[in-house]
Design goal:
The protein is 45% helix and 18% strand. 35% of the residues are buried. It is elongated and about 115 Å long. The longest helix has 25 residues, at 653-677. By secondary structure, the chain is α+β, with helices and mostly antiparallel strands. Helix 7 (289-301) packs antiparallel against helix 8 (307-323) and helix 11 packs antiparallel against helix 12. The chain is built from 26 helices and 28 strands.
C-alpha cells in the first residue's frame, strides 16, 4: 500500500499509463490528509474531476459552481497545486484517446482502493475506466463485470445500468450513466428500483447457508485473532451478542444487493435511477440491505447525524416501504445489516495502517446502532456503558476506582468517574445526550467537573462524572495530568491509572472527608504517615493536618488559592440552587410493608439517584404530638410507639375539629419549612404515612369528622411528587402483623384505593400509585421505575 512519501503525481501517472518520456504539466487537489485525490492535465478546459464529486448538499454545490467559474475564466491555477510528470499514452486496452481531456481519481485508501479514469474513447464517448490497485480490487472488478452482465438480463424498468465496454483482469471500462442528479434522500425512485430488484431476484434462504453470513463469521473470527488495539473493544463483544441472537436455521428473504448503495453511487432522473460502482454487489443478501446502507451511510458521512436521527428515518421510510410497517421485522433485518456490514468493515479497517477521520464516525454510529437493536435482550445500562468507553477509547482519560472491571458488569449502584479534559467531557456529553437509549440527560456543570445523569429509555439510571481537576472544596488534591498520563488500557479497553497514583488520590480524598478508605485502596504506609503528621488517629485531626500539608503546595497558594476559593463558592451556590429534591409518601394499613420498603427505597435513592434522603413520620412535625404538651415530648412519643393504632375513642366533633386543626396547621406551615430545608437543597423526603390518613383513616389520629372536611383540607396542602399506597389481601397482612382485623383491613384498603383513584384522575402527573405489595422485589422495582422518571 502506498505511503505519503510515495504519493506523487508521477506515481499515479505511472499507474495508469505506458511509456513515460514526454514531460507534461498536471494540476491536482488533495484530501484533508494532504494525499493526492484528483489529477488532470493542465490543458483541461473543463473540470472533469467533478464527475467524481457528489454535489448533493448545498456546500458541495457551491464548491462545484466556484470551480466551474474558475475554469471558465481560466483561473483554475489559483486553487490547485501544480506538478510535472512524464506521460505518453494510456494502455491500448483502455481504448482512450490520450489527446483528449481526462481526469483521474486516486481512490479511497484501503484494501478496496481502485483508480478511476474519466475520459473520451476513440468513438468520442465519455467512459469511466476502473483500474485495479491490488489483488483484492482485481476480484472486485471481476465481480462488477459479472454483476453488470447478470443484471442487464433482467431488463429493469426503474434502474439504468452502465454498459460494459471492455474488461481485463486489471481493469473494466463502463459507459457514462450520470444523467439526472444525486439525491441525499431515499426517494420514491430509489425505493421503486430497489423493490423491483428485490422482486425479480428474491429467494427464501436459510441464514447459515448464505455466503454473506459465512463471510461475517469469518470476519469476526479474524478480528479476534488480529487483536487490533484501535478497534473498539466493547463493539467486538457486542458483535458476539449480535451473532448469538440469530438462529443459523432461520429462513430469511434475500435478494441481489448493490452492496454499497449510497447517494454518490447513483443518479436520479425522473422515475429511474442510474446505478454504478457495482463491484461489491452480492447474491442472497438480506431484504432491505441497500436501503439500510443508503440511509445509514448518508446519515453518517454526509449529515453527521446521530443514530437516534438515522433510526427515525429508517422507521419512517424503510419500514413501511420494504416491511409493510412491521417494526419487528424491520429490526430483524436491520440487525442482519449491522452484523454483516460492521464485521466486514472492521476487518477492512484492521488491515489499514492509517484511518481517515470518517472511520471513527462510522464505528461510533454502527456501535450505537448495535446497542439499539440489542436493547430488547441486553440491559440498556450495560450497552450505554460499553458505548461510553468505546467513545473514549482513542481519547486521553483515566477511569478512577475501576479495579479491572468489565464496563458492562459495573454494579447498578455504582457511578463512573473519568479523569479527562474539558474538551473531551463536552464531546462525551453531546454523544450521550443524543444516544438512542437515553430518555433524559441532566447535566450539572461545576468548575472542576461535569456530572452527567442519565435516565435511560428502560428507566435505568447511569451517572458519569467527567473530572478535569482533582479538587475538594478549594484544595487541589493531585495533578490530574499525572493521573491521566499514568493510565494504561486493561484487557477490556478501559484506561486505568497506575495503582500507586490511584491509591494515593483515593486515600487523600477519603481522609479529607473524614471517612474510612475502602479496604481495596487502603494503604498502611499512608495511614502511618497521616498518624505521624497529625500525631493522632482521630479523623478530624488527620483531616486538618492533611489540609495544612496540601495548602503548602504551589497550586494551593496565592492567586491559585483565591481562584479555587471563588470556584468553590460558585459551585456551592450552583449545588444549592440548581438541584431540587422531591417528596414521596408511603401509605397503607399496618402490615402493608411500608417500613421495609422505605428503608430499601432510602438506600436505592442514595446509591442510584445520588441524593440525600430524609425520612419523616406522618407530618412535618414542627408541632409536637398533642400529648407532648402534658406529658413531655419523649414520654408522649414513647407512649404513641407502644400503643396499638386506632385505639382512641374520641366521639366529640368539637374535640376532633380542634385536634384536626392543630395537625392541619402543622401541615400548612410545616410544608414550607420542609420544602425550603430539604427539597430546595436537593434532598429527597420520604413520608412514612401522610395526610391521606386524615381522609381514609381519621380514627387512627383519634379524629371523628366527616371525610369531606379532611378531603377539602387537602386542597391547601402542597402536593407530593409521588404517592405510593401499599396494599395486600387481609390474609397476607395478618400473616405479617396482627394489629387490625380482616374486616378493618379490607374496609381501609378499599377507602385508600378509591381515594387514590379519585386523586389520580385530578392529577396530570400520575402521582398516586397503588401497588399490591406481595413480592418485595417487584414492588421495589416498580417504585424505583417511578422514581427514576420523577428524577428526570
Amino acid at each position: 500500500m502506498m505511503n505519503k512519501k510515495q504519493d506523487s503525481v508521477q506515481t499515479w501517472i505511472d499507474a495508469i499509463s505506458t511509456d513515460h518520456t514526454e514531460k507534461k504539466t498536471f494540476y491536482y487537489l488533495c484530501n484533508e490528509d494532504r494525499t493526492i485525490r484528483w489529477v488532470w492535465p493542465s490543458e483541461n478546459k473543463k473540470p472533469l474531476f467533478l464527475r467524481f464529486y457528489t454535489t448533493a448538499s448545498m456546500k458541495s454545490k457551491m464548491f462545484a459552481v466556484c470551480v466551474r467559474i474558475l475554469f471558465l475564466v481560466r483561473l483554475q491555477h489559483l486553487f490547485v497545486k501544480k506538478a510535472t510528470a512524464n506521460f505518453d499514452f494510456f494502455p491500448v486496452e483502455y481504448n482512450i484517446d490520450s489527446t483528449q481531456e481526462w481526469a483521474l481519481f486516486t481512490g479511497t485508501k484501503g484494501p478496496n482502493r481502485k483508480l478511476i479514469l474519466t475520459a473520451s474513447n476513440f468513438s468520442d464517448k465519455t467512459t469511466f475506466t476502473k483500474i485495479a490497485y491490488g489483488v483484492k480490487t482485481r476480484q472486485m472488478l471481476k465481480n462488477e463485470t459479472r454483476t453488470i452482465e447478470k443484471l442487464t438480463d433482467f431488463n429493469f424498468s426503474y434502474s439504468i445500468l452502465p454498459q460494459l465496454l471492455s474488461s481485463t483482469k486489471n481493469h473494466i471500462q463502463i459507459s457514462d450513466v450520470s444523467t439526472g442528479e444525486r439525491s441525499l434522500r431515499l426517494e420514491t425512485s430509489h425505493i421503486n428500483a430497489l423493490i423491483e430488484i428485490a422482486h425479480k431476484t428474491k429467494n427464501n434462504t436459510v441464514l447459515g447457508t448464505t455466503k454473506m453470513y459465512l463471510e461475517a463469521m469469518e470476519s469476526y473470527k479474524n478480528l479476534n485473532m488480529k487483536n487490533d488495539q484501535r478497534l473498539p473493544k466493547a463493539l467486538k463483544r457486542k458483535l458476539q451478542w449480535l451473532i448469538n441472537s440469530f438462529d443459523e436455521h432461520l429462513k430469511i428473504e434475500t435478494t441481489i444487493a448493490h452492496g454499497d448503495f449510497t447517494p454518490w453511487n447513483c443518479y436520479v432522473s425522473n422515475d429511474q435511477i442510474s446505478l454504478y460502482d457495482l463491484e461489491m454487489a452480492q447474491d442472497k443478501m438480506p431484504l432491505g440491505y441497500d436501503a439500510f446502507h443508503f440511509v445509514i451511510q448518508n446519515g453518517i458521512l454526509v449529515n453527521q447525524d446521530s443514530w437516534k436521527t438515522i433510526v427515525k428515518e429508517i422507521m419512517a421510510v424503510i419500514c413501511p416501504a420494504f416491511f409493510e410497517g412491521d417494526k419487528e421485522k424491520t429490526l430483524k433485518y436491520l440487525k442482519l445489516y449491522l452484523l454483516i456490514n460492521t464485521a466486514y468493515y472492521l476487518n477492512i479497517y484492521s488491515n489499514q495502517d492509517e484511518w481517515h477521520v470518517q472511520v471513527n464516525w462510522l464505528l461510533q454510529t454502527w456501535n450505537e446502532g448495535i446497542s439499539f437493536v440489542l436493547q430488547e435482550t441486553i440491559e440498556s445500562r450495560k450497552l450505554v456503558l460499553m458505548d461510553t468507553f468505546d467513545f473514549m477509547q482513542n481519547r486521553k482519560y483515566a477511569a478512577l476506582k475501576f479495579k479491572g472491571y468489565i464496563p458492562e458488569q459495573i454494579s447498578y449502584l455504582s457511578d463512573v468517574d473519568l479523569c479527562t479534559t474539558k474538551k473531551d467531557a463536552k464531546a462525551l456529553t453531546k454523544f450521550l445526550k443524543n444516544h438512542s437509549l437515553v430518555h433524559e440527560a441532566r447535566i450539572k456543570n461545576l468548575s472542576f467537573m461535569k456530572n452527567i445523569e442519565l435516565v435511560l429509555k428502560n428507566s435505568e439510571l447511569l451517572s458519569i462524572d467527567c473530572i478535569w481537576q482533582l479538587r475538594r472544596k478549594n484544595i487541589i488534591i493531585q495533578d490530574i495530568d499525572q493521573v491521566i498520563k499514568s493510565a494504561c488500557s486493561n484487557v477490556f479497553g478501559v484506561k486505568q491509572p497506575s495503582s500507586l497514583i490511584e491509591a494515593n488520590y483515593v486515600n487523600y480524598f477519603y481522609a479529607l472527608n473524614k471517612a474510612q478508605t475502602p479496604i481495596q485502596y487502603r494503604s498502611k504506609s499512608f495511614e502511618l504517615e497521616m498518624e505521624k503528621l497529625a500525631k493522632s488517629t482521630n479523623p478530624v485531626a488527620i483531616q486538618k493536618s492533611l489540609q495544612g500539608m496540601l495548602k503548602k503546595k504551589k497550586v494551593n497558594k496565592g492567586l491559585s488559592l483565591i481562584k479555587n476559593s471563588i470556584y468553590y463558592v460558585s459551585d456551592t451556590i450552583k449545588n444549592v440552587l440548581g438541584q431540587h429534591g422531591f417528596i414521596i409518601t408511603f401509605s397503607g394499613v399496618d402490615g402493608a410493608g411500608k417500613s421495609t420498603l422505605i428503608e430499601i427505597t432510602k438506600q436505592r435513592i442514595d446509591k442510584q439517584l445520588r441524593k440525600s434522603v430524609v425520612v419523616l413520620r406522618h407530618r412535618p412535625s414542627l408541632l409536637p404530638i398533642l400529648s407532648a404538651w402534658t406529658m413531655g415530648k419523649d414520654a408522649a412519643e414513647q407512649k404513641a410507639a407502644s400503643t396499638l393504632p386506632r385505639q382512641g375513642e374520641n366521639k366529640s366533633r368539637i374535640s376532633s375539629f380542634l385536634r384536626f386543626g392543630y395537625y392541619y396547621i402543622d401541615y400548612v406551615v410545616g410544608q414550607f419549612y420542609i420544602y425550603i430545608k430539604y427539597v430546595l437543597r436537593g434532598k429527597v423526603v420520604l413520608y412514612d404515612r401522610y395526610y391521606f390518613d386524615f381522609i381514609s383513616d381519621s380514627r387512627r389520629s383519634n379524629i371523628n369528622l366527616p371525610s369531606w372536611i379532611t378531603t377539602m383540607g387537602y386542597n391547601l396542602i402542597m402536593k407530593p411528587h409521588l404517592n405510593i399506597f401499599l396494599y395486600a389481601d387481609a390474609e397476607t397482612i395478618l400473616a405479617r402483623k396482627q394489629e387490625l382485623n380482616a374486616e378493618t383491613i379490607t374496609t381501609l384498603t378499599n377507602k385508600y384505593l378509591m381515594l387514590f383513584k379519585k386523586l389520580n384522575k385530578k392529577s396530570k402527573t400520575d402521582a398516586y400509585i397503588p401497588i399490591n405489595n406481595v413480592n418485595l422485589d417487584t414492588t421495589i422495582n416498580t417504585i424505583m421505575d417511578k422514581l427514576k422518571k420523577k428524577a428526570a
